[in-house]
Design brief:
It contains three helices and three strands. It has helices at about 10-15, 20-30, 45-55; strands at about 5, 35-40, 40-45.
Length: about 60
């Protein structure tokens, strides 16, 4: 079953335990996948898109999740 719930910067930040501004910075630097949906100029990602991205992204050195 797919999770089609849309996440904003806030939900992504909570999921990976960082501040929303950090997630915005990831997007600005091309480290975040392209948004799955844009509404009124605001980007949103499916929860599954972000979970897949988290599973495949390099971990920060010294940080345990």
């Amino acid at each position: 079953m797919t999770d089609r719930k849309l996440w904003s910067y806030k939900e992504i930040a909570a999921h990976i335990r960082v501040q929303p501004d950090t997630v915005r910075s990831y997007r600005k630097h091309g480290l975040l996948p392209s948004p799955d949906h844009v509404e009124s100029g605001k980007p949103y990602w499916y929860a599954d898109t972000i979970r897949a991205w988290v599973a495949n992204r390099p971990r920060n050195r010294g940080r345990r999740e």
